[in-house]
Design brief:
The chain is an alpha/beta fold and 738 residues long. α2 packs across α15 and α20 runs parallel beside α21. The chain has a nine-stranded mixed sheet, sandwiched between helices. Strands 10-11-12-14-13-15-16-17-18 form a nine-stranded mixed sheet, with helices on both faces. It has 22 helices and 18 strands.
């Protein structure tokens, strides 16, 4: 490890010890309180965390322009969260089609191809017989039915379904996943039914891991050669959901590339976990023409499996809005007596309003079949057949009645045999796959290092677009911020103002102290500290000498308690790890797929303060950031999001890197934090704003240097590598320049 990083780790350790020591003595809580002793801020984030069983309403936009902006944000959120921003380099699929079986009106062939090098997608290809020309194609992801494509409901089960009206035929009801493929082929469609990871022939990563992960595996949670669900995988947005979604994209590539398929007439349909894949694929890929996600689009439970969740995915959004991204293309839905039972009153009316806004109210339809449990049974499939007949322009007479068929056995369906041996899988394959993903993303992102104004714009689009999702918030609208001045007291040479800053839509409230000099020079310095506002006051309750120096220079100073600092702490003790939802499975996506991490929330708080300070005292002061003593990484991330709202920033990173975090529970954990250049990537996004940088040695990281030079702002980047005891004085001197 380089000496600088060893020094940085030692500094962080010493700081952690110092923080613990400081917090043990009540006398050190010297900053003035904004609220009464013992009263916590009225902040929504102190309440329960959101989990997959929460409520996820969709609020339609008021205009097409507003929706276009929102759609771009949500679509990018899916791509970033799934690890598909940028999209992986497309490698040769090397598709193999073999083992044709003839049936009445259709054929079935066995298919496998590589989505990533050495990682295979497997499935069954159904084709109609007696048809010529280009035919419509249908992609069929399946859900969590046992054995996937090989699913057999059993004789007793199907007979009950027939009696209850859920199925018509014993064979079709026993093998319902095959049934829809057979019927669609008989309707004239080319159908590709592919395996979810860990099901049927997709065994390179086992079902027990992909869908049953429960406890962290120490041998995979390592700084190198890591596996799925590990700290390093989450820091790079590598997940089973992302793997399955990319498999779906490559499956769509395969289907559209078949010589007998009309790529302009593609449908996608699946139920349960296959419904999740249906609306995720259709949200991010423009090629499908019609979609029918069954029993999954809901304002209630969002998907309980690890394959349906990943970090950052549903923060501030949900499945109904994901489905809305398919508009204005035809969207059909079904519900059942499960978490979709209220679809017709919660979700569908909003989607209808959304489609009406876009001028195509007739292109969304849904029906809830409450007399059936979670399913993709015959009545549900019949809804889909009608929808696809109409919108794939099949021209068939209605009603379309599903007929019985002769199902294939597992032995007839499996793609692997002596001539086509199953590829190797297991731990070595898992590690190699994630290593390839990491290397490919790193190479693509490294190629975007800016060299001129054109490449700088692309850098900001990709790096900035990724960081925007990873942090999860930008500046706050002026109308959404409220400041409640509680006490303003004249002090010696300055005024002290105690206030609560509120981000009203977010339900957030920050205790803050504004110190305003008598001779104000239209400057305001926001000074986040590891100890919150306590860090800016001495034991006597007065501002520290460094704060007084800033006041004397004519700068107002803001001291603020960020989330879980100062007045946010009921017992005075800061948290030692991030909060998690009440789920025994150690999967980061169950918590941070729905909630920002503490690191991100503290950045959000800084963005609220920055937004307020832009118009401080009804003016337009020069807003500056001073972030030392462990607060540098928050400030670096906030500056990346704030753009020119922050004129100057003096930041000590302490050599911090997300990639060095040891566990998902770390207080600084940020999913995706390591992917887009880590902390240097965030610092680079602050160009061309003035930056004083400490904690990185005698030179700024290469990415930061090139970004500032590409922005024509090389002289606005200052690096400090002096003694630690002179750092604060040097930063204040730099900030105080004209």
């Amino acid at each position: 490890m380089p000496d600088r990083l060893l020094f940085a780790k030692s500094r962080r350790l010493l700081l952690a010890v110092l923080v613990t020591q400081l917090w043990t003595g009540a006398a050190t809580a010297a900053a003035p309180r904004v609220s009464d002793e013992g009263q916590l801020p009225l902040d929504r984030r102190l309440g329960p965390l959101t989990d997959l069983d929460g409520y996820f309403p969709f609020v339609p936009s008021q205009s097409t322009e507003a929706w276009e902006q929102r759609a771009e944000q949500v679509r990018r959120r899916i791509l970033v969260a799934a690890g598909l921003w940028p999209m992986p380099t497309q490698t040769p699929a090397n598709a193999v089609i073999h083992g044709k079986v003839e049936r009445d009106g259709y054929t079935i062939e066995r298919v496998y191809f590589e989505s990533y090098p050495g990682h295979f997608v497997s499935g069954s290809l159904y084709r109609p017989t007696g048809k010529s020309g280009k035919l419509p194609g249908v992609l069929c992801p399946h859900g969590h039915w046992a054995n996937g494509r090989f699913y057999d409901a059993g004789v007793d089960s199907v007979r009950r379904l027939i009696v209850d009206g859920g199925e018509r035929f014993e064979q079709g009801g026993r093998y319902p996943l095959q049934a829809r493929c057979v019927q669609l082929a008989r309707m004239g469609c080319v159908v590709f039914h592919y395996d979810m990871v860990g099901y049927a022939d997709s065994q390179q990563i086992p079902q027990s891991l992909a869908h049953g992960f429960s406890k962290q595996r120490p041998e995979f949670d390592t700084p190198k050669n890591w596996g799925l669900f590990s700290t390093q995988a989450e820091l790079r947005q590598q997940s089973v959901l992302g793997l399955q979604t990319y498999n779906s994209i490559r499956s769509l590539d395969f289907l559209c590339g078949l010589p007998d398929v009309d790529a302009s007439r593609i449908g996608v349909t699946g139920a349960s976990g296959g419904g999740s894949q249906t609306f995720l694929l259709c949200a991010i890929d423009p090629r499908p023409a019609v979609a029918f996600p069954a029993v999954m689009v809901s304002t209630a439970m969002q998907g309980g499996c690890t394959c349906e969740n990943c970090c950052n995915l549903r923060v501030g959004t949900g499945n109904v809005e994901f489905a809305a991204l398919f508009a204005p293309r035809p969207l059909g839905l079904s519900g059942a007596d499960d978490w979709t039972r209220e679809l017709d009153t919660k979700g569908l009316p909003q989607l209808q309003e959304h489609y009406k806004l876009l001028g195509v109210p007739e292109l969304v339809s849904g029906k809830v079949l409450r007399h059936f449990g979670h399913n993709y049974n015959y009545p549900s499939r019949a809804l889909m057949y009608h929808w696809f007949n109409k919108h794939l322009k099949l021209g068939l007479s209605e009603p379309i009645v599903e007929e019985d068929y002769v199902p294939l056995s597992s032995a007839e369906m499996t793609v692997w045999d002596e001539s086509h041996p199953m590829p190797p899988g297991g731990p070595d394959h898992e590690r190699a796959l994630l290593k390839w993903m990491t290397g490919d993303a790193d190479r693509q992102l490294a190629a975007l290092e800016p060299r001129d104004s054109t490449s700088l714009a692309r850098f900001r689009e990709v790096y900035g677009g990724g960081v925007d999702v990873v942090i999860g918030r930008g500046l706050v609208n002026d109308a959404d911020i409220e400041a409640e001045p509680l006490i303003e007291e004249a002090m010696e040479g300055y005024s002290q103002i105690l206030t609560l800053l509120r981000n009203k839509p977010a339900g957030e409230e920050l205790p803050a102290v504004f110190l305003h000099p008598a001779d104000w020079k239209q400057r305001i310095v926001i000074w986040p500290h590891e100890l919150g506002k306590d860090g800016l006051f001495g034991d006597d309750g007065k501002p520290t000498p460094a704060v007084r120096q800033l006041l004397a220079s004519g700068a107002a100073v803001v001291a603020v308690d960020l989330l879980y600092q100062g007045e946010f702490l009921a017992d005075g003790w800061p948290p030692t790890e991030g909060r998690r939802v009440n789920n025994p499975r150690e999967f980061a996506g169950y918590t941070w797929g729905y909630n920002p991490t503490l690191f991100a929330q503290r950045v959000h708080d800084l963005l609220t303060v920055i937004s307020f300070c832009r118009t401080y005292r009804q003016g337009h002061p020069r807003v500056e950031l001073l972030a030392l003593d462990g607060a540098g990484p928050w400030a670096a991330a906030a500056r990346a999001q704030a753009g020119d709202a922050v004129a100057r920033a003096a930041i000590d990173t302490g050599g911090f890197r997300f990639a060095n975090l040891p566990a998902i529970g770390d207080i600084s954990f940020l999913p995706g934090g390591a992917k887009y250049g880590d902390l240097p990537g965030m610092l680079a996004l602050s160009a061309p704003g003035e930056l004083w940088l400490a904690g990185e040695g005698d030179q700024a990281p290469q990415l930061v240097q090139t970004a500032f030079e590409a922005a024509g702002a090389g002289k606005k980047l200052t690096t400090f590598d002096g003694a630690a005891e002179s750092q604060l004085a040097a930063a204040i001197e730099w900030l105080s320049r004209p």
